[in-house]
Design a protein that fits this description.
Shape: globular
Largest sheet: 3 strands, antiparallel
Bound molecules: (alpha-D-glucopyranosyloxy)acetic acid
Low-confidence stretches: none
Number of domains: 1
CATH architecture: Alpha/alpha barrel
CATH topology: Glycosyltransferase
Structural class: mainly alpha
Helix content: 40-55%
Amino acid sequence: MNHDEMIRHARQVLSDNDRGTYTVPTHGLYPFQWNWDSALSALGFAHYDEPRAWLEIETLLAHQWDDGMVPHIIFHQPDDGYFPGPDVWSTGREVPTTGITQPAVAGFAVRRIFDRARDRALAEEKARAMLPKIHAWHRWFYRCRDPQGTGLVAIVHPWESGRDNSADWDAAFERVPTEGVGSFTRRDTSHANPAHRPTDEQYKRYIWLVQKFRSLGWDTSKMHDASPFLVVDPGFNAILIRACEDTADLAARLGMEEIAAESRAMAEKGIEALETLWHEPLGQYVCYDRAIGAPIESPSVGGILTAFAPIPHHRAAALVRRIETLAKSCNYLIPSHDPTHAAFDGPCYWRGPVWLIVNYMVADGLARAGQGEIVPRIIGDCLRLIETSGFAEYHDPITAEPCGGPHFTWTAAMVIEILN
Ligand code: 9YW
């Protein structure tokens, strides 16, 4: 496949998954709108249809809760093909949504699309309308997910991280009970190879947490303290910090001074606090289990995704060394878990596979930090994977096997982004 063919194919994927005002990640497996998928997929549309790119994020933000949270899934149309659906979440919204969030990448996406926009008037109109909403979401994060004001937010459910079954959560997840979770039928395992998906045991705990938050009436100000699962994920925080920084820059250019100042302050505090997650022996950042007050010494890509934020230069340089070490034990960068570690599982979701969106964000951050030498390798591996195995949800970093769902929106969007 030459590059033109690849772009054509990628655009076809986007168009097949386009539902008019939003995209689904892939037909069948994920039939609704997912939060960070939409923001990243908008980057793909922006190269050939700017109004459609803006609309993708606009639709997402139209379902923001009054408290500021932007939910992780919006169930626009009923579909039996996914579990847990709206009846399980039962958040009481007119257009049903889940009651948890996802990585706050929308602020970054808006700034990037704005910077490259050919239609300047449209970009300015859209950015002006969206920035206050995105800012309200960021403020919600620091208010509800960092009640002690540490500068770092916690996730209360693995699904919030976007890295659902990462080994990072294993020990903390043991503290989530399964009692009281009735029987249910998973749908994901009929669309994708069950060996590539989370286990039934993990699903029971996912559902226990949903039931717990439902019992709190979806009051998002109560969830942090009530959750037995409370983890500070460096990658998740890095995305939020980057989004705050991008919001600050863009707001300043548009004369939205208050948003600019508050966003800048949140980003600076976050960057300073991120330093507490550095783990010298592993040479990368690691998660922190806030429920027990201890670091989680798990070498996952969550700690490398920090490159996306404006971390200090010596840390960015150390992350490059870390990636070079990982390159010795796999054929395609960047594995979502260290292949030499016992928990590594090449084709299993977030326990080993390569995700193009992660590669994209890490590469972008390293280039900004003046560590661009490794970028062609990281980006080149994305293209080799697509050439070898198609537009899969994720790929095995050793064998390149295409895993999860096929014909995947954000994978395609990243290809368009890379090749333009
Ligand atoms: C699920 C849609 C989502 C992504 C997540 C990914 C997966 C959904 O798919 O979660 O049901 O487990 O882990 O990052 O947003 O592509």
